Amino acid sequence: MRATTIHAPFDMRVEDVPDPVVQDPTDVVVRVLRACVCGSDLWAYRGESARQPGQRIGHEFLGIVEAAGSEVTGFTAGDLVVAPFVWSDGTCDYCAEGLQTSCPRGGFWGSVGSDGGQGEAVRVPFADGTLVKLPADAASDDRLLTALLALSDVMGTGHHAALGAGVRAGSTVAVVGDGAVGLCGVLAAKRLGAERIIALGRHTARTDIARRFGATDVVAERGEAAEAAVRELTGGQGAHAVIEAVGTEQSMRTAVAISRDGGSIGYVGVPHGSGTGLDLSVMFDRNIALRGGVAPVRAYIPELLPDVLDGTIDPSPVFDLTVGLEGVPGGYKAMDERTALKVLVKP
Amino acid sequence: MRATTIHAPFDMRVEDVPDPVVQDPTDVVVRVLRACVCGSDLWAYRGESARQPGQRIGHEFLGIVEAAGSEVTGFTAGDLVVAPFVWSDGTCDYCAEGLQTSCPRGGFWGSVGSDGGQGEAVRVPFADGTLVKLPADAASDDRLLTALLALSDVMGTGHHAALGAGVRAGSTVAVVGDGAVGLCGVLAAKRLGAERIIALGRHTARTDIARRFGATDVVAERGEAAEAAVRELTGGQGAHAVIEAVGTEQSMRTAVAISRDGGSIGYVGVPHGSGTGLDLSVMFDRNIALRGGVAPVRAYIPELLPDVLDGTIDPSPVFDLTVGLEGVPGGYKAMDERTALKVLVKP
Questions:
Q1: What positions does the domain Alcohol dehydrogenase-like N-terminal occupy (chains A, B) (predicted)?
Q2: How do residues A109-127 score in pLDDT, each as one tens digit?
Q3: Touching check for B114 and chain A: CB below 8 Å?
């Protein structure tokens, strides 16, 4: 089959690789209908996260089950399924608690020896623990299929951030980061009943989506000017719930600065740099909490799925460029240069 | 009156200072019956927190109301009262929410221009918002009075840490720090229903109190050996709730290392050093939360007071040395040299 591989920074290729097959009785093989490129894939693309030459890539996909191992009970050939961005066994303590990202037998798509989502097909370990079935008729609804793909990562990650930030009915929320995750954070906050949602971002194409997703205010300033703007919008106090969807020291510093005393930062931007963006003394004096991390998306799909199916939430606008599999390298380039927000792949 | 002052590092004095009087109609003056020395006072004593020469000190006290301003409605002369370690107006948004430490009109005892607890009397601003009345007959019960004094800081701070750590019925809790706050954290965790409480500490006099307060296990090792010991006690996973009651980079590093994935660190040790003890990448991968800060003790006194009065909790064993007011400088020396755990002052 054809699949995307990464050979060096900025050297993405689409190549012939072995067809995936059922290896363990708990595996299924999924034929990919939709995949996409994630902001976190760009860390590998830019060489800031190490990869072995030829390693697969892509951790978001949905598709049709093509073959199932003898011990798989939940899926059969022909099922439409979505995969969260990690696989997990579904039986350990952590899986039982809904923290599948900590499953000792879990792993990331595209890690050495595994298939990535940006290819024609994927061998899925622990299929019963990992995959979630979708209604078969969704396969013929292009818009819906795109919205459902967001459940593999960005929508669940935005939801995780909103939970970490403690968003509830009536909350005032600020969102740092105007990428797909930040935008999905807006959508998640709105879904949880936030009354006021302040989106920080300079790109009107993105902040327009934020407004469509429920943002009531947009702050286009950066740094201290942005902090001042959020304070002015919140009677000088800051936002009780802050979603941090970037992961840099600067964004963390902004998140702390715009938090209300007693508030919480829900952080889902993969941290680059240490904790030095966090001024613990400020957080201590103001009782600001930090909660988040890698989102256990698998736990959230059952909760979010009905709302996507009935249109209560529609994350599909975060995809603004569609490519075929051979167009994936160009998709990376477009996202790296910020001419695309998030690239949809139709193999 | 006589009161403790700090003139330079290691230069504590007991001197004649002006008698406090009602200045604002919302003030009361409290004659101090019991005060104490806090571990955080030692930062000033050691010169690690700056003080002006002659500044007052001490932020924990209880006593008898001697005079009340014309607008004070909750207290009259003769009332037995306990003060939390900050004063607060009792009327702002933050006070209404139980985050009195963020009251814009609040302040710390011993800050420039205010009285400290380690003296014969204290002028208390915003008395109605700040003080809590105690039963009059407690004044004649020496042991109970000492236990009630702990409500001014360490017991409420331990409770704040336990809440931040997410302690609930059945929790496995680890406590970093064997000072008075850490020990009160053990007591608070036990009170909240923790099933297993692992106290980290090397001083048997202290860990004996921890056991008396409800610790089920004691880990005397330090650093990586301590981390390994906690992992072994918890089936390799770590503790879901970690109380961090020290505030150094090393203690924060230990707290992260012994947290279970998905767990929470309740931190109440005043941070010295930046966030560099926090490895955000580790916290991110394992979904470890950080919650805490300066404890809004005023909010917790009404909840904890009945349990102290009926003996359900008795924090009085954290006081292991009693001095008169003239003995306060010696009390600092004893705590600094760790020959005393916490010094009780009877002016």
A1: 25-135
A2: 999 999 999 999 999 999 9
A3: no
Residue B158: which residues within 8 A CB-CB, separation 6 or more? B181, B182, B183, B184, B185, B186, B187, B188, B243, B245, B268, B315
Q: What is the pLDDT of residues A24-83, one digit of tens each?
A: 999 999 999 999 999 999 999 999 889 999 999 999 999 999 999 999 999 999 999 999
| CATH T-level topology, domain B158-292 | Rossmann fold (3.40.50)
Cβ neighbours of A102 in B, within 8 Å: 261-262, 286-287
Alpha-carbon torsion, ordered B274, B279, B283, B288, to 10 deg: -40
* Rounded alpha-carbon distances, angstroms, from residue B143 to A260, A316, B59: 40, 65, 20
* Residue range A193-197: mean pLDDT, rounded: 98
Comma-separated ranges of CATH 3.40.50.720 domains in chain B:
158-292
Task: State what percent of residues in chain B have pLDDT above 90.
Answer: 94
DSSP secondary structure letter of residue A101? G
From B267, B278, B285, residue closest to A294, measured CB to CB: B285
Task: Taking residues B147-157, report their average pLDDT.
Answer: 98
ipTM (interface pTM): 0.95
Decide yes or no: CATH 3.90.180.10 for domain A2-153+296-346. yes
At residue A272, does pLDDT exceed 80?
no
Q: What's at A5, amino acid-wise?
A: T
3-state secondary structure of A17: coil
Q: In terms of CA atoms, which chain A residue is nearest residue B268? A: A284
